[in-house]
Amino acid sequence: MIPEGPRFFGRRRGKTLRVTGRTLVDTLLPRLAVAEPLPGEHIDPTRLFEPPAKALWLEVGFGGGEHLAWQAAHHPDIGLIGGEVFLNGIASLLGHIDRDGLTNVRIFAEDVRRLFPAMPDACLDRVFVLFPDPWPKKRHAERRFIGKDNLDQLSRLMADGAELRIATDDEVYKDWAQSQMALRPDFENVTVDRSQKVEDWPATRYETKAREQGRSPIFLRYLRRARSPKL
Fold first, then answer.
1. Which of 26, 44, 121, 133 is catalytic?
2. 133 is catalytic
3. Considering the entire predicted model, what is its pTM?
4. Is residue 36 within 8 Å of residue 110, measured between CB atoms?
5. CA distance 231 to 198
C-alpha cells in the first residue's frame, strides 16, 4: 500500500468530457503517463523519453496545457513533464499533443508533490508554476504551492542555474510569492520587469482571462544558485 502523501484540495473533474477527450484519456494517456512511484522507488526522469531527453523541464499544474504544448513544440530536444490532477485539463493537453504530434511530453496525472521524492537531485533545468490556485483566504495560506516545503523540494531537484518561472494575477498571491522567494538564499531573483514576460513565455488561458477581466498578471523569474562545493 502506498502511504498517504500530500493532501490535495483542488478539483479533479469538471464538465463531462466529450467523446474525443474520453478517447484520448483512454488511449493516449496510458502511453504518456508517469506512474506514481512506489515507496522508496527512484526514477531517472530523462529515461522516460526516447531518445533520452537532453534536459528536463517541469510544469506544476499545467491547466489546459497550451503553455506546456507550446514549449514542447519549440524545444523538441527537451523532455517536459506536466503534473496535473484536473481530468479536463489533462484531456485538453492530450488534444494538443495529438494534434501537434508531440513526442517529448509526459504526464503525471496526480499531485506532482507525490513525484518529487522519487526524482534525483539537480535533475530539473526549468520549472513553471503558472497561475496556481491562489487560496486567497489567510486560513488557507498553507495550501499555496509557493511555500517553504515545496521550495525546499524544488531547490533539491533543480540544477545549478535552473530557472523557476512563476506567474499570477491574484493580488494576495503576488505579495505572497515574492515574499516567500525573498526568504530563499538558494534562489536569485532575475526578474527585470514583473509586468513583462521573456520572449519564450506564451500566454496561458488563465493569463488571457485575467487580462480580459481587467487584472494585471506578474511574471517572476528566479535562478537556482550554485551549490557550495562539497569538501
1. 133
2. yes
3. 0.90
4. yes
5. 37
